[in-house]
Write a structure and sequence with these properties.
The complex is a heterodimer of chains A (708) and B (376). Chain A is mainly alpha-helical. Chain A contains 27 helices and no strands. Chain A has helices at 7-48, 63-77, 82-108, 111-126, 128-143, 147-177, 179-194, 201-208, 212-236, 240-248, 253-286, 294-304, 308-333, 353-377, 387-391, 393-412, 426-439, 450-472, 475-507, 511-541, 543-558, 561-572, 576-601, 604-612, 617-650, 658-668, 673-701. In chain B, β12, α14 and β13 form a beta-alpha-beta unit. By secondary structure, chain B is an alpha/beta fold. Classes of the chains: A mainly alpha (708), B alpha/beta (376). The A-B interface holds A 239, 241-242, 244-252, 255, 259-260, 263-264, 266 and B 98, 100, 123-129, 131-133, 135-144, 152-153, 155-157, 200, 204, 210.
Chain lengths: 708, 376
C-alpha cells in the first residue's frame, strides 16, 4: 500500500507544480507592474509638466454668466411669459395653497390635541410605550418654544411626502409594467440618488425663486427615487405564479394589479415611503437655505451666529421628528401581521405585583374603550369609507375624542402652549462649548487635545493633499491619472467618461475648489474606512458588540446630516475639520453595516467547513469570510464615499470651504446664483466620477455568476 | 382494438359538482401547436419548415423550439396526460392551450371556437367561464385567506360576497378543508395548499381543467393521496382534464390517454395499455421498463378470440387488468373465459399467453408496435 509513485511520475508532478507556481508569480507581478508602470507614467508626466500647475482659469466656460442671464430673464418674464403663467405659476400656487392649508390646520389645533394624535398614531403602529414617548416627543416641540417652527416643518413634510407618494407610486407601477420605461428611468434614478441633496436646490431656485414652494419641489425631486424604485421592485418580485393564476382566472390587468400585485407589494411600497420620508426630512432642513423656514431655519440661523445651544435644541427637535416618522412608518409597514399586546412596562417587570395590576387595569380600560368605540362606530358600520372604523374601535373612539376636544377648545378659546412647561438647555450647551474650547483644546496646557487633533489632520493630511491636487500636480497629470484608473478598472469607455468629468471640473472654472473638496473627501473616506470596517468585523464576530453598536448606528443614520454638524462643532469649533469629522460619523454606519452584513451573510456551511479543517478564527476570517464578504464591503465603501461627499458639501456651511461653500453662497445671494449653479454642477461631476470608478472596482470583487 | 376510457366503464356515482355542459363539440382540439422562443422567429419558422431538428434551429437562429407540431384532441370527461422530462416543453404546451403563452403557430379550439381569434375581453370571458388551472407551486395568493383564494375566480367575475363565500365553502368541504377557510395559505402543509389550489380551480365550475405538474412538489405519500383524491373527484364530476407530469407512474395511474413528449414533440400518444405494451421507441421503452405492466394491460389485449368451446369457470371482463386475473391464472393452468360488457364470452386467456407476453414485453417491447397509430 505504500508504493511510491514511479520516479518519472514524480518529476512530472514537480514540473507541473513548478509551472503553476511560475504562472502564479507572473500573474501577481503583472498586476504589480501594471500599477508601477501607471505610477511611472504619472510621475514622468508630472516631471515633464511641472511648470503647468492648476487648470488655466482663462479656459473656463463662462457658464455662470449665462446662468445669471437666464435668472435675470426669468425674473423679468415671470409675470408675462406663457410658460410661467400656464405651467410654473399654477404648480407653484397650488402647492403653496396646499401647504398653507395644512399648516394653518395644524397650528389651529390645540397643542394637546396634536400631542395626543401623535401619541395615538405611534401607539397603534408600535404599542403603548412608543405612544407615550411620541406624545412626550411632540410636547418637546412646545417645551423649547419651537412649536410653530416644528409644525411648519411637519406641514412641509406632509405636503412634500404626499406629492412624492402621489407621483412615485403610479410611476413605480408603470415602471413595473413596462420594461422600457424601467430601462429609461433607471439611469435617471441612479443619478438622482448619487447626487448630494442640495444640488437639487439650485435649478429649482432658478425657476421658482427663493421661497417655500421651491423648497418643496426640491424635496419632492430628491425624495422621489426610493418610492418609485421600491414600488417597482415590490411589484416585480410578486411571485409570477400568482400573477399567472390571476390571469388564468380571467382577471383584467387592473384586477390583477389591485387584488394580487399591490397587496403583495405593500410591504415594499411602505418601505419605499419610509425611505422617502427620511430623505425628505433630511433635505427639508437643508432647504431652509432657500427659505423653507421651520426648524431648519432655526438651526441654520443659530449656527451662523454660533448660538450652538439653540442649534442643538432645534436639531434635537428634528431628530425627534425623524425618529418618530421613521419608527411609525416602519411599524406601519408590518401592520396587520401581528397583534401587539397592550403593554406599558417591559416584560421583565412582570413579576412585580403592582406592575401586573397596572397592566391589567390598563387592559380592562382598553376593553372598555373598545366597547365604547365600537358602539360609537356602529352607526357608520355600513357606510363605505367609514366602515373601517367599526373594525377598529380604538381608532373610532380616539378620533371622536379628538374631534370633541378640538371643537370644545375652539368654542371655549384655544389655549396657548403653557409657559410653565417650557425649558431651555441652550445656555448649558453654550457653557459647555466655552468649557470645551477653554479646556479640551489643549488639555491641561499640554500639546494634546482637540486642537492638536484637528491641527494634525489639517497640517499633515488635508492641506498637503489639497496643495498637491490643486497646485503641485499639473492638471493634465491629474486627468491622466484618473483616465488610467478608469481604463484599468472599466476599459476605454470608463476612461473616456472619467476624463470628461475631470476635464469638466476645469472647464467649469472650478478646478481649485474641486480639488479642495476632493482632498477633504479623501481624508474623510480614509478615516471612515479605517474606523468603519474594523468595527464591522468586530460586530460580525460578536453578537453582543453588534447589539451595542446597533442603536448608535441607527441614531447616526436617522439624524439628518445637517444636525450632525452641531455636536461636532461643540467639540471642534468651526472650520474644515468639524466638516470632515461629521462626514466620518455620517458615513461610518454604511461601512460598518455592510461589512458586518457581508461577513454574516457568508454561508454557515463555508465557515463550518473552514473550521472543520482546523482553521483558526483569524484564518477563517482572512481566507473565507472576508473574501466572500468582499462585494458587500466594497458596496459599503462605495456608499461611504457618496455619503462623505454629500456631507463634505454640507460642511461648506460651517467653514468647510470648497464647492459646498460656493453652492451655499449661490443659494444665499441672488447675484451669485450662476457660480453656485456651476459649483453644484462640479459636485455632480465629482460624484458621478467617484461613483462610476468605485462601481467598476466593486464589480471586480463580485464572484462570477453561474450562468447557463 | 377499441379504446376503453376507464371512466366510461361504470355508472357515475355521487353528485356532480356543478352542471356538465353537454354540447356535441369536442371540448379541446389542438392542431400543430408550435411555440418558438427567441427574437428571430421568421428564420426559425423557415428552418422548421425545412425539417431542421430542434438543435439545428437553436444553433442557426438562436431560437428555442419549446413545442413543435403538437396535435391532439381531448374528449369530454377524458383525462389527457402529457408526460415528459423537464425541458421537454410540456409546461409551455399547457400554457398555449389557454394562451397564457401565445403559440407561435397552430390552432387551439375550445368547444369548436379557435381561441387564437379571441380579443382580450373574449379571452378573459373564456378563462372565467370555461377554464381553470392548478399550478405546480400552487400559485396561491399569500395575502388572502384560504376562502378568499378559493373565491378569487368568482370575485373576479363580480359575484356578490355572500354567493362566492357560499360556493367557496362548498368546494372547500369537497376537498376536505372546510375547517381551514380562515387560515392563510402559509399556515397549511404542502398537500393542503394544493387542495386549496384544486378547490380554487373547481370553484368556478370550469369545463376544462389544466393541471401543471400539480403534485410534483409534494411528498410521495401525499402525492399518492392527492392522485387518489383526483381520481375519485373525476369519477364524480367528469370534467375534461389536461394533466402535465414528469412521473410516468402518475401518468399511467391518472391518464385515459397519455402523450409522451420529448424535445418539444409528441413521441407517442395512446392509452396507458398501448404505451406499456407497445412503446413507440427506445425512449418510451425506458419509461415502461419498470412500469407496473400487470396493472395496465387488460385481459382483452392478451386474449385469444373464441374458437369453439367455452372454457369452464366464471368469465373475466375484457377490461379487467392482468393483476385482477393473475391469482386465478396462477392457481389454475386452464384457460379462463373472457366476456364483454354484455356478458357474452368473446375469447379466452391462459397462463402461458400472459407469461409469454410479459416476458416478450420486458425484453423487446417491439411486439405490436404501430397498434396505437390509429388512435392519434
Amino acid at each position: 500500500m505504500t508504493a511510491a509513485p514511479p520516479a518519472t511520475g514524480s518529476s512530472e508532478v514537480a514540473g507541473a507544480v513548478e509551472a503553476r507556481l511560475t504562472l502564479d508569480r507572473r500573474r501577481r507581478t503583472r498586476s504589480g507592474s501594471e500599477l508601477a508602470v501607471g505610477l511611472a507614467i504619472v510621475v514622468a508626466a508630472q516631471l515633464a509638466l511641472s511648470a503647468v500647475g492648476g487648470f488655466p482659469e482663462s479656459w473656463a466656460v463662462p457658464l455662470a454668466d449665462w446662468i445669471d442671464d437666464a435668472r435675470r430673464w426669468v425674473i423679468n418674464n415671470q409675470t408675462t411669459h406663457w410658460s410661467f403663467s400656464f405651467i410654473f405659476n399654477p404648480i407653484s400656487d397650488s402647492i403653496d395653497w396646499g401647504l398653507r392649508t395644512v399648516e394653518r390646520f395644524l397650528l389651529w389645533l390645540p397643542w394637546y390635541v396634536v400631542a395626543a394624535a401623535g401619541g395615538m398614531v405611534a401607539a397603534s403602529a408600535l404599542g403603548m410605550r412608543a405612544g407615550l414617548l411620541a406624545a412626550v416627543g411632540v410636547l418637546y416641540f412646545g417645551a423649547i418654544e419651537l412649536w410653530e417652527e416644528s409644525l411648519q416643518t411637519v406641514a412641509l413634510m406632509t405636503v412634500a411626502v404626499g406629492i412624492s407618494v402621489a407621483i412615485g407610486v403610479p410611476v413605480g407601477i408603470a415602471s413595473a409594467r413596462y420594461d422600457r420605461l424601467q430601462r429609461s428611468l433607471r439611469p435617471l434614478l441612479d443619478a438622482m440618488q448619487t447626487l448630494p441633496a442640495f444640488v437639487y436646490l439650485i435649478p429649482v431656485v432658478l425657476l421658482f425663486g427663493v421661497a417655500r414652494v421651491p423648497a418643496i419641489i426640491a424635496t419632492v425631486v430628491y425624495a422621489l427615487p426610493p418610492v418609485i424604485r421600491l414600488t417597482d421592485l415590490g411589484i416585480r418580485t410578486v411571485s409570477p405564479a400568482t400573477v399567472e393564476a390571476a390571469e388564468m382566472f380571467g382577471a383584467t390587468p387592473r384586477q390583477t394589479l389591485r387584488k394580487v400585485q399591490l397587496p403583495q407589494a405593500l410591504p415594499s411600497v411602505l418601505t419605499g415611503i419610509n425611505q422617502t420620508i427620511m430623505m425628505a426630512l433630511s433635505i427639508v432642513v437643508i432647504a431652509a437655505l432657500i427659505g423653507a423656514g421651520g426648524l431648519g431655519q432655526v438651526v441654520l440661523e443659530s449656527l451662523r451666529r454660533l448660538f450652538v445651544g439653540r442649534a442643538l435644541e432645534a436639531g434635537l427637535a428634528i431628530v425627534v421628528l425623524a425618529m418618530l416618522m421613521d419608527r411609525v412608518t416602519h411599524g406601519a409597514a408590518g401592520l396587520g401581521t401581528r397583534r401587539r399586546r397592550l403593554r406599558l412596562m417591559p416584560d421583565s417587570l412582570e413579576r412585580l405585583g403592582f406592575v401586573r395590576s397596572v397592566e391589567s387595569a390598563l387592559e380592562s380600560l382598553d376593553r372598555f374603550m373598545c366597547r365604547v368605540g365600537a358602539s360609537l362606530a356602529s352607526p357608520v358600520r355600513r357606510t363605505p369609507g367609514l366602515a373601517a372604523l367599526a373594525r377598529h374601535p380604538r381608532w373610532a373612539l380616539g378620533l371622536v375624542a379628538l374631534v370633541v376636544v378640538t371643537i370644545a377648545s375652539a368654542v371655549l378659546g384655544r389655549p396657548e402652549f403653557p409657559s410653565a412647561i417650557t425649558f431651555s438647555f441652550a445656555p448649558a450647551i453654550d457653557w459647555l462649548v466655552d468649557w470645551v474650547r477653554d479646556n479640551l483644546y489643549e488639555i491641561g496646557g499640554t500639546w494634546f487635545g482637540t486642537g492638536w487633533f484637528s491641527d494634525s489632520i489639517t497640517i499633515y493630511a488635508v492641506t498637503p493633499l489639497r496643495e498637491l491636487f490643486s497646485a503641485d500636480l499639473a492638471w493634465p497629470v491629474v486627468v491622466l491619472a484618473v483616465a488610467l484608473a478608469g481604463w484599468r478598472l472599466g476599459g476605454a469607455q470608463l476612461a473616456t467618461f472619467c476624463t470628461a468629468c475631470v476635464a469638466g471640473l476645469g472647464l467649469l472654472g472650478m478646478w481649485t475648489l474641486s480639488m479642495d473638496t476632493l482632498a477633504q473627501v479623501i481624508v474623510a473616506v480614509v478615516m471612515a474606512i479605517l474606523c468603519g470596517i474594523p468595527l464591522g468585523v468586530l460586530a460580525a464576530r460578536s453578537d453582543r458588540f453588534e447589539r451595542m453598536l446597533k442603536p448608535v448606528l441607527d441614531f447616526l443614520q436617522t439624524i439628518p446630516s445637517f444636525v450632525l454638524l452641531v455636536p461636532v462643532i461643540i467639540m471642534f469649533n468651526v472650520g474644515r475639520i468639524p466638516g470632515i469629522i461629521a462626514s466620518v460619523l455620517y458615513a461610518l454606519p454604511a461601512a460598518t453595516r455592510l461589512t458586518n452584513l457581508g461577513i454574516r451573510q457568508v454561508e454557515g456551511e463555508a465557515t463550518e467547513a473552514s473550521r472543520a479543517f482546523g482553521a483558526t478564527r483569524g484564518q477563517t476570517l482572512r481566507k473565507v469570510q472576508l473574501p466572500l464578504a468582499a462585494p458587500s464591503i466594497m458596496a459599503g465603501i462605495n456608499q461611504t464615499v457618496m455619503l462623505v461627499l454629500a456631507m463634505v458639501v454640507i460642511a461648506g456651511l460651517v467653514g468647510g470651504g470648497g464647492l459646498g461653500l460656493e453652492t451655499v453662497k449661490g443659494l444665499r445671494r441672488t447675484d451669485s446664483v450662476g457660480s453656485g449653479f456651476v459649483a453644484g454642477l462640479a459636485i455632480v461631476l465629482l460624484a458621478m466620477l467617484l461613483d462610476r470608478l468605485l462601481q467598476a472596482w466593486t464589480r471586480r470583487f463580485t464572484p462570477v455568476e453561474g450562468g447557463r | 382494438m377499441a379504446l376503453h376510457p376507464r371512466h366510461v366503464k361504470g355508472e357515475s356515482r355521487g353528485h356532480y359538482i356543478g352542471p356538465v355542459v353537454t354540447t356535441e363539440q369536442t371540448p379541446l382540439e389542438c392542431h400543430e401547436i408550435t411555440k418558438v422562443f427567441g427574437d428571430n422567429l421568421v428564420a426559425a419558422r423557415a428552418r422548421l419548415a425545412d425539417g431542421c431538428d430542434r438543435q439545428m434551429v437553436l444553433d442557426q437562429t438562436g431560437c428555442l423550439v419549446a413545442v413543435r407540431d403538437a396535435t391532439f384532441s381531448v374528449e369530454r370527461g377524458e383525462t389527457f396526460v402529457v408526460m415528459g422530462l423537464s425541458g421537454s416543453g410540456k409546461s409551455t404546451l399547457i400554457r398555449c392551450l389557454s394562451r397564457l403563452i401565445e403559440p407561435t403557430s397552430g390552432t387551439v379550439k375550445i368547444d369548436g371556437t379557435p381561441i387564437g381569434d379571441l380579443d382580450d375581453q373574449e379571452l378573459r370571458e373564456l378563462r372565467r367561464q370555461r377554464l381553470s388551472m392548478v399550478f405546480q407551486h400552487f400559485g396561491l395568493f399569500p395575502h388572502r385567506k384560504v376562502i378568499d383564494n378559493v373565491a378569487f375566480g368568482l370575485e373576479i367575475q363580480g359575484a356578490a360576497k355572500a354567493d362566492r363565500y357560499e360556493r367557496a365553502l362548498e368546494v372547500l368541504s369537497v376537498v376536505g378543508l372546510g375547517d381551514w377557510a380562515d387560515h392563510f395559505p402559509q399556515q397549511l402543509s404542502g398537500g393542503m395548499q394544493q387542495r386549496v389550489g384544486l378547490a380554487r380551480a373547481l370553484c368556478v365550475e370550469p369545463e376544462i381543467l389544466f393541471f401543471d405538474e400539480p403534485f410534483s412538489a409534494l411528498d410521495p405519500l401525499i402525492r399518492r393521496d392527492m392522485q387518489d383524491e383526483l381520481l375519485s373527484l373525476q369519477a364524480r364530476m367528469r370534467r375534461t382534464l389536461v394533466f402535465i407530469t414528469h412521473d410516468f407512474h402518475e401518468a399511467l395511474k391518472l391518464g385515459d390517454r397519455i402523450a409522451i413528449m420529448k424535445d418539444g414533440e409528441f413521441v407517442q400518444v395512446g392509452t396507458p395499455e398501448q404505451i406499456v405494451s407497445a412503446p413507440a421507441d427506445d425512449y418510451v421503452r425506458e419509461f415502461t421498463e419498470d412500469a407496473p405492466k400487470t396493472k395496465v394491460i387488460t385481459v382483452g389485449s392478451v386474449m385469444q378470440p373464441l374458437d369453439g368451446e367455452v372454457p369452464a369457470g366464471e368469465p373475466v371482463n375484457l377490461d379487467a387488468v392482468l393483476d385482477d386475473v393473475l391469482p386465478r391464472l396462477l392457481a389454475n393452468p386452464a384457460a379462463l373465459p373472457v366476456a364483454d360488457d354484455q356478458g357474452e364470452v368473446v375469447g379466452t386467456v391462459d397462463r402461458d399467453r400472459v407469461v409469454a407476453l410479459l416476458d416478450e414485453n420486458s425484453r423487446s417491447g417491439a411486439a405490436g408496435a404501430g397498434r396505437n397509430a390509429d388512435q392519434l
